[in-house]
Design brief:
Mean pLDDT of chain B: 85
Distance between the termini of chain A: 19 Å
CATH topology of the largest domain in chain B: Four Helix Bundle (Hemerythrin (Met), subunit A)
Structural class of chain B: alpha+beta
Largest sheet of chain A: 5 strands, parallel
Largest sheet of chain B: 5 strands, mixed
Oligomer: heterodimer
Strand order of the largest sheet of chain A: 2-1-3-4-5
CATH class of chain A: Alpha Beta
Helix content of chain B: 55-70%
Number of strands of chain A: 5
CATH superfamily of the largest domain in chain B: Aspartate receptor, ligand-binding domain
Low-confidence stretches of chain A: none
Number of helices of chain B: 10
CATH architecture of chain A: 3-Layer(aba) Sandwich
Largest interface: A-B, 15 and 17 residues
Order of helices and strands of chain A: EHEHEHEHEH
Structural class of chain A: alpha/beta
Chain lengths: 149, 495
């Protein structure tokens, strides 16, 4: 996965369940996606990485990022992270893929309202899960990720 | 309050009875006294009349004597006039007196004596008058001078006076008795009045007490009632909150349970793919050269696949259970949308969707008409009756074609009651409650299912404001009876 200028895209994975994180990574790799995956197990660390120590978002400027976001996090909800990403000048164009167990209709609507680009429910059945992640990987390999401001 | 109402009432009755009794006695006694007084009055009148009659008789005799004396003195016949009138009157007067005393036979001898005296006097008068008329004035005067006439007259006077005295005594007695009666009546009336007054007061007092006790009880009841309503409201709100909490809890728990399950399933798959590599390794004859080669081969070929198999079936089962909880909790959170549903049309659609299964089993499913229309949530109704019909088709007796009847049965309170009857395997009485419990099933476990169908149905029917009951006979069939309100209760919508 590259941007238009051939620069490598980094995948920021915010997922508190280490098992899920590993399964996601494995299956993305199986789909042939070799981009960097930066894993975060909680919201605080992820926000620190995305917006820097001062929280301005300057830290993410001129990067090519794609965020893989789980909604159920120990320290905050994924929805508030999504909100912050989409509200920040530097990160608002960063694609966000919500990948979570929640399949509540209202929650899905809310995420799209806040600017989520894709919403995927984790299937419990592993075959489907692996399939979904691999297809997501294929999707990653073709999408264009804009540079952040 | 410990007021003894029956006792109070009894006391009131006693007072009332005493009052009425006294009144009756008063009336009776008054009547008797009146009768007595009236008798006395008659006696008084009679005595007066007797006295008058006696006096008139005496006057008549005196008149006769006065006339005789005047004639004897003057010799003028005009002085005879009173005499002539008087002698005609005396017998009349005597008859009058006799008539007045006819009810008093005890006086007859006295009257006889009076009469005799009066006629004696008249006879003496007639003697002198006739002598004078004959011109024998001296002889007539001589007769007068004998004092026979005077004695006779005194006799008459004395006898009449005596008789009058007797009558007077009788009169006094009658008047006294009359007065006594009046006094007695007065005292009696006073006493009876007092008793009635007391009875009335007593009755009034008890009634007042009774009324007060009633009022107090009523106000207390009202207070309790208001309190009760408040409490019911509070409890309902509490229950609602608890229910909501449980729903949210179930939702969150089931969600959080899914996350580890994804791992268990995922890594089981990973293990399986790892095992595939190992299995190919088993084919290598070099393995036999190793000391633990045989054991490793057994582990790879039998033990590990078996373990993985158990993990898989268990995770699948758990997945099913979690899905069931999620479904139920989501159902509880779904907002019901009431609409008018024509149940005839509704059941036609429901049956059409299972027709192929019915035909396959060579069974029959009938909807008896007429069916009413209902204002309720269509989706919930579909789930309720879909589940019941599905169960009826599912739990059959092998070799017996399913016969299912859906019909409306009459009900009270304006509710709609629909029965779904089958000729299936039935449910044992011991399991009657269990079948409605979550994850619980009854009878032979030869059909797929998680044991959520009826639990789900029960929850749904409750949310629709209704009730579901079941009657069943093991081996014969089951009847589910769904009672639903004609109109979805309003408050269920603001949940």
């Amino acid at each position: 996965m590259t941007n238009s200028e051939g620069k490598a895209v980094q995948i920021v994975m915010i997922e508190d369940d280490a098992g899920h994180a590993r399964l996601i990574e494995k299956n993305i790799r199986r789909a042939g996606v070799n981009n960097d995956i930066i894993p975060f197990a909680n919201g605080t660390d992820a926000l620190a990485f995305l917006f820097g120590a001062n929280g301005s978002g300057e830290a993410s400027a001129r990067k090519h990022l794609l965020v893989l976001l789980d909604l159920n996090l120990p320290d905050m909800t994924g929805v508030s992270i999504l909100e912050k990403i989409k509200a920040n000048e530097h990160t608002k164009r960063t694609p966000v893929v919500v990948l979570t167990t929640t399949d509540d209709e209202r929650e899905i609507q809310r995420c799209y309202d806040l600017g989520a680009n894709v919403y995927i429910t984790k299937p419990v059945d592993y075959e489907n899960f692996a399939n979904a992640i691999r297809q997501l990987g294929l999707f990653f390999s073709v999408i264009q990720v804009p540079e952040t401001n | 309050m410990n007021t003894n109402y029956p006792n109070l009432l009894r006391v009131t009755y006693v007072f009332a009875a005493a009052g009425v009794l006294t009144l009756v006695v008063l009336v009776a006694v008054s009547f008797w006294l009146l009768e007595k007084t009236s008798n006395s009055t008659e006696d008084v009148i009679k005595a007066r009349e007797q006295r008058t009659a006696l006096t008139r008789l005496l006057l008549a005799v005196q008149d006769a004597e006065t006339g005789q004396r005047g004639y004897l003195l003057t010799g003028e016949s005009r002085y005879l006039e009173p005499y002539n009138v008087a002698i005609k009157n005396v017998p009349l007067r005597i008859a009058e007196v006799r008539d007045q005393f006819k009810d008093n036979p005890e006086f007859k001898p006295r009257l006889d004596r009076i009469e005799a005296a009066a006629y004696g006097k008249l006879k003496e008068l007639a003697e002198t008058v006739s002598l004078k008329m004959e011109g024998k004035s001296e002889q007539a005067l001589a007769v007068v001078k004998t004092d026979r006439g005077k004695d006779l007259m005194d006799d008459v006077r004395e006898l009449v006076a005596e008789q009058i005295d007797l009558v007077e005594t009788k009169l006094t007695k009658a008047i006294r008795s009359q007065r006594d009666n009046a006094v007695l009546a007065r005292w009696f009336t006073l006493g009876a009045g007092l008793i009635i007054l007391l009875a009335a007061l007593g009755a009034a007092a008890t009634i007042l007490r009774y009324t007060r006790a009633l009022m107090a009880a009523r106000s207390k009841m009202q207070q309790l009632n208001t309190g009760l309503e408040e409490r019911v409201k509070e409890r309902t709100a509490d229950l609602q909150r608890a229910n909501d909490e449980i729903q949210r809890f179930a939702y969150i728990v089931s969600h959080d349970l899914r996350a580890p399950l994804v791992n268990v399933m995922g890594y089981t798959s990973e293990l399986e793919s790892g095992l595939a590599t190992l299995t190919s390794l088993c084919e290598d004859p070099k393995l036999d050269e190793l000391e633990s080669g045989g054991a490793a081969r057994t582990a790879i070929r039998e033990d590990i696949p078996e373990s993985i198999g158990f993990i898989r079936t268990s995770t699948h089962k758990m997945d099913g259970l979690i899905k069931a909880i999620l479904k139920l909790s989501r159902e509880g959170q779904r907002i019901l949308r009431p609409e008018t549903v024509d149940l005839e049309e509704f059941f036609d659609t429901a049956i059409a969707s299972v027709q192929h299964r019915v035909s396959e089993a060579e069974g029959e499913i009938k909807v008896l008409r007429p069916m009413p229309t209902i204002e309720s949530d269509r989706l919930a109704l579909e789930q309720v009756f879909g589940n019941l019909i599905d169960n009826a088709l599912k739990y059959t007796v092998s070799g017996r074609a399913p016969q299912i009847v859906v019909e409306q049965v009459p009900s009270r309170w304006g509710a709609i009651v629909i029965e779904v009857q089958d000729n299936g395997r039935g449910i044992a009485p011991d399991d009657a409650e269990r079948v409605f419990d979550l994850f619980r099933r009854a009878g032979a476990q030869d059909k797929q299912g998680e044991g959520i169908g009826l639990a789900h149905v029960k929850t749904l029917v409750r949310r629709l404001g209704g009730e579901i009951t079941m009657t069943s006979e093991l081996g014969k069939g089951t009847t589910f009876r769904v009672m639903l309100p004609r109109k979805l209760p309003e408050k269920r919508n603001d949940e």
